Structure formats: C-alpha cells, structure tokens
Amino acid sequence: MELNPKKTAVIFKAFCDESRIIILQILKDGEKCACRLLEALNITQPTLSHHMKTLLDSGIVNGRKEGKWMYYSISEEGLKKAQEYLDYLKGEV
Amino acid sequence: MELNPKKTAVIFKAFCDESRIIILQILKDGEKCACRLLEALNITQPTLSHHMKTLLDSGIVNGRKEGKWMYYSISEEGLKKAQEYLDYLKGEV
DNA sequence: ACCACATATAGAGATTTGTCAATATGTTTT
DNA sequence: AAAACATATTGACAAATCTCTATATGTGGT
C-alpha cells in the first residue's frame, strides 16, 4: 500500500456519483458500447463522455476503441486495487 | 445487492476526498479522539467535524461519545458493505 | 453558577463537479 | 470528397463540496 491520499481518492471517485454507479451496474453485465450506455441513462452524450473519462482515470473501467465505437468494461485489475485498499484498512495486510 | 445508486454513492464518498483518506489512514491504527485527528491534519476543527459527519454518514466510520470527547474508529461492518459491492461488480455474487 | 474545554452548527466564500449546447475530431460508407 | 455517424472537447452555468470564521451546545471542574 504505497498509494498516496490523492491517488486513492481518484480511484474511488468512480463510485461516488449516482450516474457512475448506474454505468457500473450496466457494465457488470459485460462490455458495452458508449451508445448503449447513453440509451440507458438520462444524460446527454457529452455528460456520458465526461463520466467515462472519470471512470477511466480511476482505473476501474477499461476502454477499447473499435472503429467509430468505444467499448467500455469493468477492469478486474482496477477493482482489485480498490479491494486491496479496503483490505488494508481492515488491517488484513 | 439491493443498494440503490444514491446510497452506494454515499458509502463511497468516504474514500473520494484526500483529507478523509488521511483520516482513515490514522484510524487504521485504532480508535482516535477527534482532537488527535485534528493535530495530524492541517485543517480547522469545523472542517474536521464536517469530514467526520461525511464519514459517519457513509457507515465506514463509527463514532462514540465519552464525556466531552468524541472517539472515531473504522467500522468493520461498513467496510464489509463496501467490499461486498466491489465483489458484486466483479461478478462474484 | 461559572469557567474552560471539546465538538457541532450556521453562514459565507472559493473551488470542484455535473450538466448542457455547440463544435471538433475521427471513422465508415457512398 | 462528401455525408453520416459515434465520440470527444470546449465553454458556460448550476449545484455540490470544501474550507473558513463566528457562534452554539454540551460536559467537567472549580
């Protein structure tokens, strides 16, 4: 656990907004195109793009470009990092 | 996993601010009085109070009043809830 | 009852964040 | 090359958040 406070906060920003939780809920079913996410949420396309940037920055979501489409999925590695931090707080280090 | 998006976001607000991460870092060592936390942080007493309220609301921290002192500690139960959510996203449900 | 101390609340200012409309970039098809 | 489409970026505004000073509340000791 060498994470500094600022970096740790960035990771968990993924989970502290309602819209992003809904996005993660959808991605839980598997990789989705941005357009599919947009259909499911009551936000505009630029707002979705903004949230996806936050999620990518957090490391909790992976992005993959295929042609004109952008595919997003949950990053097992990112989730693991978040879990490791919670374990660390539990004193299970 | 019956958590609604708003409630989930509230839980994780505990981890998405730099000052709160530092507070959790200190509480990892065990229960601490508010005055001890205040010494360790470069913030005013009302600001600390505000962050402690956020942490209590998230369920990640427990509070206990003893005389004029307020003691805070990490809530194993709260942490467990956060971890369960991350597990859920991993598809390990 | 009063004073000293620890913490909480109220209110205000500054910063950050979420949101949108408008526009730019990049890709595919015709 | 142009048109159509998917996504990203810009710039502006509103809402939420962080921070402070000032003040209130509550507790223990004198």
Count of individual helical segments of chain A: 5
Mean pLDDT of chain A: 94
What order do the SSEs of chain A take from the amino end to the carboxyl end, as H and E?
A: HHEHHEEH
Q: Greatest contact pair? A: A-B, 30 and 31 residues
User: How many strands, what sense, and barrel or not for the largest sheet of chain A?
Assistant: 3 strands, antiparallel
Unreliable stretches of chain A: none
The proportion of strand residues of chain A reads 15-25%
Count the strands of chain A?
3
Percentage of residues in helical conformation of chain A: 55-70%
For this structure, the quaternary state is homodimer
**How big is the Rg of chain A?**
14 Å
Shape category of chain A? elongated
Q: How does the helix and strand content of chain A classify structurally?
A: alpha+beta
The first-to-last residue Cα distance of chain A is 9 Å
In spatial order, strands of the major sheet of chain A run: 1-3-2
Which tags fit this structure?
homodimer, 93 residues, alpha+beta, three-stranded antiparallel sheet, 5 helices, 58% helix, 15% strand, elongated, DNA-binding
